[in-house]
Amino acid sequence: METIKALINGNFIESQTKQFVEVLSPLTQECIAKVPCMLEEEINEAVKSANEAYLQWKNTPIMARTRVMLKYQALIKDNLEELATILSMEQGKTFDDAKGDLTRGYEVVEFACSAPTLMMGETVENVAKEMNTFSYKQPLGVCAGITPFNFPGMIPLWMFPLAIVAGNAFILKPSEMVPKTAMRLAELFLESGVPKGLLQVVHGQKEQVDILLEHPLIKAYSFVGSPKVGAYIYSKATHNLKRAQALVGAKNHMVIMPDINETQVINALIGASMGAAGQRCMAISVAIFVGDSKKYIPRLIEKLKAIKPGAWNDPNAAYGPLITRASLKRVKDLIETGIKEGANLILDGRNIQVEGYPDGNWLGPCVFTQVKTHMEIYKREIFAPVLCIIEVNNIYEALEIINQNEFGNGTSIFTNSLSCANYFIKEVTVGQVGVNVPIPVPLPFFSFTGWKGSFYGDLHAYGKQAINFYTETKTVTQKYFLEANKEGIVFNFQENHSK
Ligand code: NAD
Fold it and tell me: CATH code for 2-248+454-476?
């Protein structure tokens, strides 16, 4: 069985630790790799050599930095099938989904190829007499990223390409549940010609993250994961007066207005709620049917009954297994709670079997109706193919529910009314809004703008905000003496040279 290596100062090394985490296949429970919980001195070595690499890299011409990204995006595309196979096998998501995961990632690398424009500062001439002010964006130094299990390709790629093209070095601590995709992405990054030491990959869990959090040379932390861990990392980093951004949990609502056509909404809702086994921070986990639109619910249930999870390489699988046995148990416990609280489990996928994989972490589509906002199944992020349905009378009631929810990652409204859509866009307290688009994840030239309890920090992931997150602005005010030197130095200097 493979022992996952770390990437330290350009070399893939085996940790000397005695402590490992097993990566279990979500299809079979077979142990497919061992992840080291690395030693403090190994992590310190990674940070030290990252800092040395940064000191050279920050002075490397911007076009040279950009060329690394041009090469890297091409390498990811050329190796997409292989990367997607690795990703599917460790994470469980279907092959198409895995390719989507990586595609969303390399789009960020493509965006990083605009570094010369993105790194431009601002200039104002004549801020006072014979005085100009201009600004530069300068890198911070060593930055770190801690990533979750659900997007093993996309989320590391949200972080290190933009940090590095901006002139920083980066320490990546991937999820211990899905380390293999990150390691292959790191290998390809080295192939793209990046100087050694700029990307380091370390492994472990809380103890190793704590070492990163306390390290004086690390200047900024990007985190994506669960709310509790995000709150811990954000508060610890900022307590140490460091910069931090934490993208965390979600409860995303889709509002279905009665003016929308059934066919326009049902397939979108199925994909958004069940796709990737609901293990997406932008998955729709609550559908709010407004007024007469509730007549679509029976059709939705009928269509969901035809959907089945399966192995990553089964072309008929709608989605894969949940990530771990523990996760499946947590979700099943929550479903029990929902039943006890009085919600109606109108579709129960708990006993689903998938041929050939008796030990997979399977959960068929589950739907609760009669869900109330005080229930645990409504309040908590389930992160599984479980949809909660709420019925309301009008858009105002729908908005009240969404705006009172603690999370604010994504939401969508399905309607043909421009006025209704615009009212919703204006009033909703959620950071990413879809109009007739079920999962409104912005492309990388925008930023991923979760709100409320879905994000701790100020500057968001990718887009221009990420460049600002990974840089400091230096503002220069410069005085010159044209008037005073008219008869003096300037002209004498020119005369001297013209002789
Ligand atoms: P997680 O919080 O368990 O783990 C994320 C990372 O934190 C991993 O690298 C893990 O090793 C590390 N970690 C775990 N416990 C820690 C601790 N006590 N101290 C320090 N580090 C620790 O999250 P997960 O289960 O891998 O991912 C699922 C969560 O991620 C969901 O809540 C989902 O909504 C969220 N997520 C959010 C976004 C977003 O953009 N808002 C995107 C993807 C996932």
Answer: 3.40.605.10
pLDDT of 264 above 90: no
Residue nearest to atom 35 of ligand 1 (CA): 225
Residue 249 CA, ligand 1 centroid: distance in Å: 9
Q: How many residues does the chain have?
A: 499
Confidence of residue 1 (pLDDT cuts 50, 70, 90): confident
Q: Which atom of ligand 1 is nearest to the CA of 233?
A: 20
401 Cβ inside 6 Å of ligand 1: no
Q: Whose CA is nearest to atom 40 of ligand 1?
A: 247
Ligand 1 atom with the smallest distance to the CA of 204 is: 11
- In terms of CATH, what superfamily is 252-435? Aldehyde Dehydrogenase; Chain A, domain 2 (3.40.309.10)
Residue nearest to atom 30 of ligand 1 (CA): 225
Distance CA 497, CA 241 (A): 52
| Span from the CA of 77 to the centroid of ligand 1 (angstroms) | 27
3-state secondary structure at position 32: strand
Q: What is the pLDDT of residues 180-198, one digit of tens each?
A: 999 999 999 999 999 999 9
Does any ligand 1 atom lie closer than 6 A to the CB of residue 147?
A: yes
Please list the active-site residues. 281
CA distance 312 to 211: 36
Give yes or no for residue 345 having a pLDDT over 90. yes
Residue nearest to atom 34 of ligand 1 (CA): 249
Predicted structure pTM score: 0.96
What pLDDT shows up at residue 499? Answer: 46
Backbone angles phi, psi at 94, to 5 degrees: -65, 160
**Residue 51 in tokens:** 């800092």
Answer whether 249 contacts ligand 1 (Cβ < 6 A): yes
Phi, psi of 342 (to 5 degrees): 105, 5
Residue 210's pLDDT band, with cuts at 50, 70 and 90, is: very high
Q: Ligand 1, residue 450: give the atom nearest the CA.
A: 41
Q: What is the mean pLDDT of residues 421-449?
A: 98
Residues 221, 223, 228: CA angle, nearest 5 degrees: 120
Q: How far is CA 24 from the centre of its chain?
A: 23
Tell the residue nearest (CA) to atom 17 of ligand 1: 206
**pLDDT tens-digit map of 121-164:** 999 999 999 999 999 999 999 999 999 999 999 999 999 999 99
Beta strand residue intervals within 107-242, DSSP E? 123-128, 131-139, 142-146, 169-173, 199-201, 218-224
Q: How much is the CA Rg of the chain, to the nearest whole Å?
A: 25
The pLDDT of residue 36 is above 50: yes
pLDDT at 427: 98
Centre of ligand 1 to C-alpha 44, Å, is 23
Per-residue pLDDT tens over the stretch 404-430: 999 999 999 999 999 999 999 999 999
Domain boundaries, the chain: 2-248+454-476, 252-435
Please give the number of the atom of ligand 1 that sits closest to the Cα of 228: 2
